[in-house]
Amino acid sequence: MHKLPQKWAIVLPAERHARIGEALRVSRVVSTDDLAHELGVSAETIRRDFVALERQGRLSRVHGGATITLGQAAGEEAPFAERTGTAADAKTRIGRAAAGLVHPGQTVVIDVGTTAVQVARALPLDFTGTVATCSLLVAAELSERPGIEVLVCGGRLRGGDLALSNSVAQAFFADLNPDVAFLGSGGVDAATGLTDYYLDEIAVRKIILRNATRSYVLADSSKFGLVARHRVAELGELGGLITEAEPPSGIQDAITRGNGVIVLS
């Protein structure tokens, strides 16, 4: 039996989406036919990928191909209301998987973002422990849980996500040593690592990552191959990735080389 040429090897949807994202970052416009030839799939498959990625806000379809969206070109995050409705089922599943990693009595950090809220929502009703957060949305979600002590940092408030950051938030988390931390993400890329959009919030996240016994990044498959404007960490620095679909091989390798794990929801 003859081995297929490399370019004709089977490429999973998540891998194709990551490769499309990489091509868009390089050239801003990509051709349907060129991608189909490069990935060894039909043009119709690439067009279906474009439709899926356009729904996620990752590109805009044009005649014969696709182009990067204006928001991505400017390095901007989509509005909170728009992100809330994107990949909702995946985020719910990721939240449940993350909550399943928490044990009674632990001190848990839940970061900001639409998926982070799902982690708070999925914590068992009988969970007892401490949750520290820089998200007022997470704090509100847990405010009526009698078994949970909710700690909220101070700082500057960003609308939409209701995220807190600046030196006050940094000082709060510098004195905290959580058992486990669940981190939000703007993008997860094999080469660039974990990235996000707001510099003050990234400074807080780096402190959380440094102090946590175990840390997991929360990322649905639409984040694979995306690179936001600011770098948080290399993927090898993370304890693991919680997602709903098998990541591209490059992302898997980058995480597991640092003894991290992939948790599929």
Question: Explain this structure to me?
Answer:
With 265 residues, the chain is of the alpha/beta class. The protein has helices at residues 13-27, 32-39, 43-55, 70-73, 80-84, 88-99, 114-122, 136-142, 167-174, 199-211, 249-256, and strands at 29-31, 60-62, 65-67, 107-110, 129-133, 148-152, 156-158, 163-165, 180-183, 187-189, 193-196, 214-218, 230-233, 240-243, 261-264.
The helix/strand series, from N terminus to C terminus, equals HEHHEEHHHEHEHEEEHEEEHEEEHE
Beta-strand percent range: 15-25%
Instruction: Classify the oligomer.
Output: single chain
> For the CA atoms, what is the radius of gyration?
19 Å
Concise synopsis of the structure shown:
By secondary structure, this protein is of the alpha/beta class. The protein has helices at residues 13-27, 32-39, 43-55, 70-73, 80-84, 88-99, 114-122, 136-142, 167-174, 199-211, 249-256; strands spanning 29-31, 60-62, 65-67, 107-110, 129-133, 148-152, 156-158, 163-165, 180-183, 187-189, 193-196, 214-218, 230-233, 240-243, 261-264. Helix 2 (32-39) crosses helix 3.
Walk me through the topology.
Blueprint: H1 13-27, E1 29-31, H2 32-39, H3 43-55, E2 60-62, E3 65-67, H4 70-73, H5 80-84, H6 88-99, E4 107-110, H7 114-122, E5 129-133, H8 136-142, E6 148-152, E7 156-158, E8 163-165, H9 167-174, E9 180-183, E10 187-189, E11 193-196, H10 199-211, E12 214-218, E13 230-233, E14 240-243, H11 249-256, E15 261-264
Parallel strand pairs: 4-5, 4-9, 5-6, 9-12, 12-14, 14-15
Antiparallel strand pairs: 1-3, 2-3, 7-8, 10-11, 11-13
